[in-house]
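For consistency, the fold was encoded as tokens, as this record shows:
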Amino acid sequence: MNPKVSSGRRRAILALLAITVLIVVMDLTIINVALNPIQQSLDATNAELQWSLDSYLITFAAFLFTGGVCADRFGRKKTLVVGLAIFGISSVLGAYAGSITELILWRSVMGVGAAVVPTVTLAIIMNVFPPMERPKAIAAWASAAGVAFAVGPVLGGVLLEQFWWGSIFLINAPLIVVAIALMVWLVPESKNPAPAKFDPAGVVLSVAAVGLLVYGVVTGGEDNDWLSADTLGAIVGGVMLIALLVVIEARMAAPSLDVSLLRNSRFSAGSGVIALCFFALIGAIFITQFYYQAVLGFSPMEAGLLMLPMGVGSMVMSARSPKLVMRFGPRAVVAAGSAVMALSFLITSQLTADTPIWLLAVAQLILGLGWGCIMAPATASLMSVVPPVKAGAGQAVSQTIRQVAGALGVAVIGSILGVVYRSGMEESANALPEALREEAAGSIGGTLRAIDAAKLGDQAPALIDKAVDTYLSGMQVTMLVAVGVTLLSAALAIRWLPKTAPKPPMPPAPKPAAEAADTPGARA
């Protein structure tokens, strides 16, 4: 802990760090309400839309531990400022992308800048706050991420009502400028006295491994051909590179990605619980936004407002999670949160084209209540076994696992939906001109565009009804997958998370005056 930081300044720093996290996480969710406008404006396929989400998550995950190393070596504040600057500049360039390929490229660069934020902000919290205050500080930090899941879509919907889709990225620029200015003024600099070495091989391997794996899953879902050389080769290659990355990092004396932390069951269980729930959460948000806009016909702002109950639920439970953990223990709180998320996904699996709006809001509220019970307790549990000087490295490992899980959530759940939708629509798409059939069978957005282009007249309503029914069938399957994943998370929590709240590490006892006076520093 930095003894020079007053309690008032600590609170101001925590608020600033929470807002910084909110901006970065918000960019993960704000794009969801713009997927339909982006698809229409840039003529993107469903797979390309998945890449616009996953490119951010992949580079985010790949550069997390590099950001942690830079922070430990050059200073946490300096690294955070540079990362935010990269994020802000690439946001502006992404806002004016002229093609889906350009957007995917700038989203990748945004992920590089954003990668430093979760690792470095938590390391700063560990340095600034005394042990007794850390659980509440971590809870506030985690609640910011939960709020961002709702703020992003709402803000995106408001912007899309008035401006073009690029405004959802352009809004980052002024927020980042203010955040950097306050960062320079408020946050004290800190470093790890024994920083890890740079690991360029680890960065290259992590980008290649996750990229290949996600590419294989997305390609398989788009073409429904899982045994092709492209699909199977990419998946197998990605898994092999991940294994190679773990082996190389495990053998390094001072690894950037300290996989040895995973040998501690409390650390690995906390990371695993967050990863599984994040997998289900990110994939489900991707699916439900198309349901709101393409099936129910809501505007982007209305679709964004429907996610507001999730943010409220997450914020409420994140704020209360420290007290719940003290009373019931991390195991019970996290397992209950996972089960509540599973209930929300089960409700969502039963939604139809006529579901009343209040039930949609209830499902989102339940989802937020569950997620709010997971992030803060699981993070506090896994970080309780990490020494403060290795806070950046510990958070980097956990966040890397989480972001990879998020990328795979979009890829896997999106691909399952793609397979179900293509299987159900291929025969019906034959009613369209041959040039439009492939696009129509790929996604509900493609079907609706093809129907408009073909000017089917009286045949259009029947084909639209078929598209809606097929999408709902696919959504049901994907939500049941999400139910299974979150129940697995609950089982993991019950088996390996601690039953009682971990005690904060005790500060070292002060030396006796005579002993202190006899130290070399005192004599000097």
